[in-house]
Amino acid sequence: MSAAPPDPAPADIVPPDWQRWSATKPSVLRPLTGGLTNKSYLLVADGERLVIRRNSAISASLDLNRTAEHEALLRADRGGLCAPLVYCDPDHRYLVTRYIEGGSWHSERPGALRQLAQLLRNIHTLPAIDTQLDIEAKAASYWRSIDRSTALYPALHALRQEIPQHIAAAGALGDGHCLCHNDLLKANLIVADDGNLYAIDWEYAAMGDPFYDLAVIVEEYGLNEGQQNLLLTEYLGLPVTPGHWKRLDHCRVIYGYLAVLWYAVQWCSGAMTEPRIGAEISQRIRDLSTLSSATV
Fold it and tell me: Which of 85, 101, 117 is the last residue of a domain?
């Protein structure tokens, strides 16, 4: 397993074509933490704070569609749902947005789940883009980058056999596709100082099942049953039915599967080398196997 690349020197963070989006050469203030795929930095230019995201060197292995991301960002920007877009590099090496002053979203904050449900409704009513989230194709792409000799491979392979039934069941329960963010992790939700909630990092955006977005939130935030019920009720605007619960659970399994493959790609590529990552992947596989068995 190769070592992760070192952080670039400050002089290498600002791209040479900065004149395309700034009248004065930007200065680097500091790195921004939280992102797992890319490197982001806080800049100042023309008296404004900006964020530059340098895209991952293994974007292809992670099956990232930067063109789809740009299309989704344009729609989200017009809807006031994301960090305002400043510049998207045509060669997809980097992205520049305005910096949102604020903090992380927390499910325990009063009204937080209601606010998040509204953000999801707004995202899911954005105009369509041309890219679909094809679960099987994305999983196949991940598998091509996973080393068969890794100790994680047997458990991952066993899990692989269980997923088609969940994809089929979620599809049968679904009611159409819409534009989804597909990656609403803790680092990708920001509550601005003015109280508004924004979604950032749209690199996994695609047309898909809106319950997949809900599943990401349930899994990544560890929402309990009461919180799940509140989120679903606020999102749907009607009582939650057994069919809704089944659809959510199948999508939770699907998301968990893609997430564990994503971590395995990072592990096998050397992008993540900490021993805890290997342990986390193993734990995710065990948890996912339990959830899959319980979801019938």
Answer: 101
Rounded Cα–Cα distance for residues 111 and 210 (Å): 21
Domain check: are 56 and 146 in the same one?
no
125 and 71 belong to one structural domain: no
Q: What does the buried/exposed string (b/e) look like for 184-196 if buried means 16 or more CB atoms within 10 Å of the residue's CB?
A: bbebbbbbeeeee
CB atoms within 10 A of CB 72: 29
Q: Provide DSSP, 19-66.
A: GGT-SS--EEEEEE---SSSEEEEEEETTEEEEEEEPPTTTTTTT--H
Domain count, the chain: 2
Q: How many helices (H) and strands (E) does the chain have?
A: 10, 10
Based on the fold, state whether residues 24 and 68 are members of the same structural domain.
yes
CA separation, residue 205 to residues 31, 113, 131 (Å): 24, 21, 8
Q: List per-block mean pLDDT (blocks of 10 residues) for the chain, which spans 296 residues.
A: 47 90 95 81 95 86 88 98 97 95 92 97 98 94 92 92 96 95 94 96 96 97 96 97 97 96 90 84 93 90
In a domain, 4, yes or no: no
* CATH code of the domain containing 276: 3.90.1200.10
The C-alpha R_g of the chain, in whole angstroms, comes to: 19
CB 96 within 8 A of CB 50: yes
The confidence score (pLDDT) of residue 275 equals 82
> What residue ranges in 147-255 does DSSP mark as E strands?
178-180, 189-192, 197-199, 206-208
The answer to whether 181 and 205 have CB atoms below 8 angstroms apart is yes
Q: How many CB atoms lie within 10 A of CB 12?
A: 11
Kindly give, in sequence order, each residue whose CB lies less than 8 Å from that of residue 262, ignoring residues fewer than 6 positions away. Answer: 62, 142
